Amino acid sequence: MRIGGKAFTVVNGWTVPGFTHERELGGGAEGRVVLAVDDLTSTKVAIKYLDGGLLADEAFLTRFRAAARILSQLEDPNVVDLYDFVETPDGAAIVMQCVDGVSLRHVLAAQGPAGPLAALSMLGGTLLGLASAGEHGLTLHGALRPANIMIDADGNARLTDFATARPGTEAQSGAAYAAPELWDGSPATVATDLYAATAVFYECLTGRPPFTGRNLARQHREAPIPADGVPGPLRDLVHQGLAKDPARRPASAVDYLAALEEAAVSAYGPSWEAQGRGRLTELAAQAALQPEPPKPKPARSSGRNPIVAAKQPGGGGSRTRWVLAAVAVLVVAGAGASAATLLKGDKKQPAAPTTAQSSTPQPTPPAAGGIDANQLVARIDQAVAQAPGALFSYRQTGCCGFPAAGKGTLGLAPGGQASSALPSYSLTLSGTGAARKPVRALIVEDRFYVRVGKKWRSSPLTGRGYPAAADQVRQGSAVANLTALLRSSTKLTKTGAIYEGEAPAAALAQVPDLGPMYARMAEATGAQQIAFAIKFDAGFRPTKFWVRAGPEKGRNQTMRGSYTKWGRKPAIKAPS
């Protein structure tokens, strides 16, 4: 294959289908990176083709698959979006956001020391990215160094390449930034990430890492922290983050953010962050005009390397804006409510939960005489058949799959039954595998149509990316999904207009059209029962629903959606 007029070979000659490569962006020990365009949506992405050595390392693949599931659901201004992790017998690749900016390594090589305000802004953004990832369950980056921090056009420091260092090689892959315990064979932890972040901060202040030259292992273990070249008000931050004993470093990214804010405000005033971000933006823009620096030569070092990665919990809090941004993540994770509570309010659709937010329906005593699910389904069929269209919104989230979201108009075929028909849709689709940019789309029968510019492009509802996500939205938001849950339920109670219950995953896996969706959910989460809650209007048309596979906290997947304005007659037709 040729990119930009020159030959380019990815791992084993394999490329991710559905993308056209434009040019090579760089490479490293983990693999090669190219700029590519999604053939369906024309969205630009960066694709990293993993090195064959990583593909043969099952410990790495296991850890990275788990990290990819988390990153695919994480949208944060300080983390580069991961859209998809593609594995085939021929190779594996990471499809991710193409950031409009340059790496911190490029900035430092082109511009030298960044100055205290820009360095503080960079460290603050890095810590916010680590805190956000940690809240979602990804408590370890493992490969922090300037090459893995992007500075975007707005001056945000954005982390990339989470979990791309092979377990046990963290010291080798970033020797200048590797904590002392990594050289002694201890696993990578939150504390080693904070050490690496501080070493990068030091380099932004002085123009070089804290330790260089030969025998880096010994220097990290034994050499005094070289804080003399650091501005006085910031020396304590450096001493905290580069402490030889991990127990003496900040306990979490949130705690370190509190110390950073206190030091920055004391030394440079409350506007330090705006000034620092402005300076970082300026440095990145100037660096972008200069050639990409050559890859640094591997540092010579000695010492043992770690064996496996471990997790540590975070925590902490502060009154300041920087810390509040991280603490908010922890506060949201602790919020919980029953499904009935989530469905009561009609004025606002509740935000999609993170894994820790998912809520379990609170059971109530069975209604006298029980509930006849078949009779209830018959009433729903009759009500929906008289109002064959509605506005809808839908979101699927969870630990074990890529998220999908859509909103727009749905329409059922004339004379069709809600309990057996999958609707057609005119919708805006977002949060999908190949690219996260919202797109205008149609679903008619078994075809997916996406609007790109002034043209419609068509594909089957199969494969990866937008078509697969559209199929998720169609199945999850179909009224047929709700009636299947009711028909299969082994436990069903009623509180006002809300029906709550449970249905066996094995029974749902046998439902035509919807079965594969529930089979995947059960396999991914280990769930044997699917919990649900559905709210109806006075005419037995659904208005809101909530479905969860898996426990309230842990490996789960959640679907939720809403319907309004039943009675619309949408004209949803395949584009000519």
What does this protein structure show overall?
This protein has 18 helices and 21 strands. The longest helix has 20 residues, at 116-135. The protein has an eleven-stranded antiparallel beta sheet. Strands 3-4-5-7-6 form a five-stranded antiparallel beta sheet. Residues 1-9, 301-338 and 345-369 have low confidence and may be disordered. The protein folds into three domains: 2-97, Phosphorylase Kinase, domain 1 (2-Layer Sandwich), CATH 3.30.200.20; 101-333, Transferase(Phosphotransferase), domain 1 (Orthogonal Bundle); 339-564, outer membrane lipoprotein receptor (LolB), chain A (Clam), CATH 2.50.20.20. A hairpin with a 2-residue loop joins strand 15 and strand 16. The two termini are 35 Å apart. With 576 residues, it is α+β, with helices and mostly antiparallel strands. Helix 4 runs antiparallel to helix 10 (253-268).
Fill in the keyword field for this structure.
about 575 residues, alpha+beta, Transferase(Phosphotransferase), domain 1, outer membrane lipoprotein receptor (LolB), chain A, 3 domains, eleven-stranded antiparallel β-sheet, five-stranded antiparallel β-sheet, 21 strands, about 35% helix, elongated, disordered N terminus
Average the pLDDT over all residues and give the rounded result: 82
Structural domains: how many: 3
Q: Choose one word for the global shape.
A: elongated
In the CATH hierarchy, the architecture of the largest domain is Orthogonal Bundle
- What share of residues is helical? 25-40%
- Biggest sheet strand order reads 16-15-14-13-12-11-21-20-19-18-17
Instruction: Write out the CATH superfamily name of the largest domain.
Output: Transferase(Phosphotransferase) domain 1
Low confidence ranges:
1-9, 301-338, 345-369
